[in-house]
Amino acid sequence: MPERLRSPRSAIRRLGRWGSFFSSLKRERIRYRTYETREEARQDVFDYIEMFYNPVRKQVRNGMLSHVEFERKKFAQAEGV
Questions:
Q1: 60 HSE (CA, 13 A, CB side)
Q2: Are 56 and 65 in contact (CB under 8 A)?
Q3: Average pLDDT over residues 18-35
Q4: Where residue 18 falls among pLDDT bands split at 50, 70, 90?
Q5: Which residues make Cβ contacts (< 8 Å) with residue 76, sequence separation at least 6?
Q6: Could you give the CA distance from residue 47 to residue 54 in angstroms, rounded to a whole number?
Q7: C-alpha to C-alpha distance for 19 and 12, rounded to whole angstroms
């Protein structure tokens, strides 16, 4: 369905997911830090996503698997393993 035809509820759900992510990012990573440069902040956020959020953090919508575990499981199913 084209974006403009979707219900406002679906837009709110999508924004809610991002809000949850940013809330976790602030609470778990950047709340008590001061960055010298924008590049340092960017690298820290990247590290949080790639080193903790995706491989470790469990997601309810992924059956309580991390993003990495979920993708690994889907790939194994597609390969017939």
A1: 3
A2: no
A3: 82
A4: low
A5: none
A6: 10
A7: 10
Element (H, E) at 39: helix 38-47
Distance CA(74)–CA(57), nearest Å, equals 17
Predicted confidence (pLDDT) per residue in 29-57, tens digit: 888 889 999 999 999 999 888 887 777 77
> Bridge partners of 32?
none
What distance in Å separates the CA atoms of residue 40 and residue 44, rounded to the nearest whole number? 6
Residue 58 has φ and ψ, to the nearest 5°, of -80, 145
Max CA-CA distance within the chain?
49
Give the Å distances, CA to CA, from 12 to 16, 44, 73. 6, 28, 29
Apex 66 CA angle, 68 and 61, nearest 5? 120
pTM of the model: 0.52
